[in-house]
Fold:
Amino acid sequence: MDTSFNKHFIIGLSVILGSILIAGIALFFLSGTVAGSVTAILADKSKISGQSNSVSAIAELKQEAAQAAPYQAAMDTLLPTQDKLIGFNAWISNIATADHVSATASFQGEPSPPLVGSAGQADFSIAATGSAQDITNFLTDVELRSAGFLLQLTSIDLIDQGSNYELTAQGMAFFQ
Structure:
């Protein structure tokens, strides 16, 4: 009886320990799977939240597009097209005549085409002759007062020629 009890005890204990070992291994693998699932669920939730925000932003932009259309049309008229740069020399001549200055303008090199988010630009030079006050008026009108072209003067040289001054200026005219 003693041996039979020991035998049953060892078998029972082995079954219990084996069950615990199998349950531990199963829980170990199951916890790894659960952790992976949790990570995947959190990533999906974050992705869904981002997509939801994107959809709201698109809806808001579409709603505001109608309000922005008049402003876009006004901004489009600020910059001439590259084809309209043909009138640049006549524009300079008209301003020069109004300011009692003799002036000529010419483009230098190839223009840089417009890119998304930035205007194209064409380098130019201006040569003008007149009194100091007339040249000052001419530059003020070209840069600030006269509508027609958006430009930036990058360098100005003014030389005293006795009764008159000689202006040489370089700059960039912008276009769309």
Observations:
- DSSP finds three helices and four strands in the chain.
